[in-house]
Write a structure and sequence with these properties.
With 494 residues, the protein is α/β, with parallel strands linked by helices. It folds into two domains: 8-19 and 196-359 and 443-493, Periplasmic binding protein-like II (D-Maltodextrin-Binding Protein, domain 2, 3-Layer(aba) Sandwich), CATH 3.40.190; 33-179 and 361-436, D-Maltodextrin-Binding Protein, domain 2, CATH 3.40.190.10. 41% of the residues lie in helices and 12% in strands. It is built from 19 helices and 13 strands. The strands form three sheets. Strands 1, 2, 3, 4, 7 and 13 form a six-stranded mixed beta sheet that branches. The longest helix has 23 residues, at 471-493.
Length: 494
């Protein structure tokens, strides 16, 4: 693995990642169990007016389509570059890009608040976790409707993404921006502790062994920094086939209760508590926009941690002087730290037992079915543009997102970048995990009150690590809170 200096603080863009960080060519998951879940009605999809633009008088062109997003730094740059290229390529549609929030959670709240008044955009780039909630909202024009109406070829799409975002065999988002997780580590610290930086930890046991070796060598007091993010708990559990809710994690039928309080989850939570109790972990509260976990690496308070893969291009841009801390945090953080002397590298996400086993993460584009037909048609036309190979190259090399299309990996520019640059090497690892590290029949939870589920998990982790609560107690509490949230959700929506 290539070694290179790395300004860790500028990887803060990963802190803004809310992730968590198989199907048919027709876009759904066919007869696969992974796509046969949720509350959607497979036989009652709305029609997609793919030809409605043809009926718009020339005097009323171009049709304007508003796009909401919450991206920053290189992610926002990619969104704008793709939209600008589309607007310049034709004169029938104008995509109006609007940054509406500083996090996925904030954007989702704004979206939900706009539903009663139907003050919605034509397209919204929302979090990966909201699939079931968006289906149940009744506001989405399913991509499946347009795929079928337009005879759109889906054969090149990454199948794990298609399966994850399909409900009852129907694909709902029209485009996907994949991201997952990597282990980031201080190469020099590993070498000083007698560890091989070419073979970083691949599982929980090896994380502990590495942390113990670094601590015993007197290099850092709390070698493993962890910001207690629920999405990382999801990656660990899903990667080890441990469900959060019943009915195969909500994939075989709508979830009715949580099953989080399990032997597998207890194993993970006990490991986290032991790491903390033994002084091997530096726990950081999961607050949107904070960068304390990166500053811990920057100040060499810690030696390694697990974070999002989507930071790669922003990190490299920072190294080249193309970004500032304000670009990454909107001025919320004032940290003047020189990290140019650090030697940091990254590798596959260390799972509970094996490296590279993850769940889907990132953001997805939804088209709104509440807009006029010509706006829906324009939105679909734009989504096809976003899904083109050329624009997926931009999405990857500029935005740092995993490609939606398999063949993007064959593009010479992509191959050169993945081979010759630090960010490219990390992106290649991330894309491999996306294709090969996700079980298509167990890609992650599908549940309506996903936000409430994450809140319960976040509180459980904080109570355990910051208030010394017992793992079995916090898991029991979280399980009940999630079950109660599911019951409230069902009462309110059905």
């Amino acid at each position: 693995m290539r070694r290179a200096p790395f300004l860790v603080a500028l990887a803060v863009v990963a802190a803004l990642f809310i992730a968590a960080c198989g199907g048919t060519s027709g876009g759904g998951s066919g007869d696969d169990e992974a796509g046969d879940a949720g509350s959607g009605d497979a036989g009652a999809l709305p029609e997609c007016p793919v030809t409605a633009l043809d009926d718009v008088p020339e005097s009323e062109l171009p049709v304007e389509v508003t796009l909401w997003h919450a991206s920053v730094a290189k992610g926002e740059e990619a969104i704008n570059e793709i939209a600008d290229a589309y607007n310049a390529s034709q004169d029938r549609v104008v995509i109006d890009v609007e940054n509406q929030a500083t996090s996925f959670e904030e954007l989702q709240r704004k979206y939900n608040q706009a539903i009663p008044s139907n003050d919605l955009p034509g397209i919204a780039l929302l979090e990966d976790t909201q699939t079931q909630a968006m289906v149940d909202s009744g506001t989405v024009l399913p991509a499946q409707s347009c795929i079928e109406a337009d005879n759109y070829d889906m054969s090149d799409f990454v199948q794990t993404l298609v399966d994850y975002y399909s409900v009852d065999g129907n694909l709902y988002p029209a485009s996907m921006t994949g991201s997952n997780a990597l282990i980031y580590f201080n190469v020099d610290h590993f070498e000083e502790a007698g560890l091989d930086p070419a073979n970083p930890p691949t599982n929980l046991a090896e994380i502990r062994e590495a942390a113990q070796a670094i601590k015993d060598a007197g290099i850092t007091d709390h070698p493993f920094v962890w910001h207690m993010a629920p999405w990382q708990v999801e990656f660990w559990l899903t990667g080890n086939h441990i469900p959060f809710v019943d009915n195969n994690n909500g994939r075989e039928a709508p979830a009715t209760e949580s099953v989080l309080n399990s032997e597998g989850a207890l194993e993970l939570f006990q490991w986290l508590k032991d790491m903390n109790d033994d002084g091997l972990m530096l726990p950081i509260t999961d607050v949107p926009g904070q960068i304390d976990q990166y500053l811990a690496l920057a100040n060499e308070q810690a030696s390694f941690g697990v974070e999002a893969s989507s930071a790669a291009t922003s990190v490299e841009a920072f190294l080249k002087g193309q970004l500032s801390a304000d670009d990454l945090t909107d001025g919320r953080v004032n940290a003047d730290v020189d990290l140019s002397g650090l030697n940091i590298d990254a590798d596959r996400f260390p799972g509970m037992e094996e490296a590279g086993h993850i769940q889907v993460g990132g953001g997805v584009y939804y088209m709104m079915g509440t807009t006029p037909p010509e706006v829906q048609a324009a939105a679909w036309d734009y989504m096809k543009w976003v899904n083109s190979v050329d624009m997926q190259v931009v999405n990857n090399l500029v935005g740092g997102n995993d490609p939606t299309l398999v063949t993007v990996a064959d593009v010479p520019e992509v191959q050169r970048t993945w081979e010759d640059t630090l960010s490219g090497q990390w992106l290649a690892i991330s894309f491999d995990q996306q294709q090969n590290g996700i079980d298509p029949e167990f890609p992650g939870p599908l549940v309506g009150p996903y936000t409430e589920m994450r809140t319960a998990v976040r509180q459980a982790v904080e109570d355990m690590l910051l208030n010394d609560a017992a793992p079995e107690d916090v898991l029991a509490t979280a399980e009940q809170e999630i079950t109660d949230a599911i019951a409230r959700y069902q009462e309110e929506n059905f």
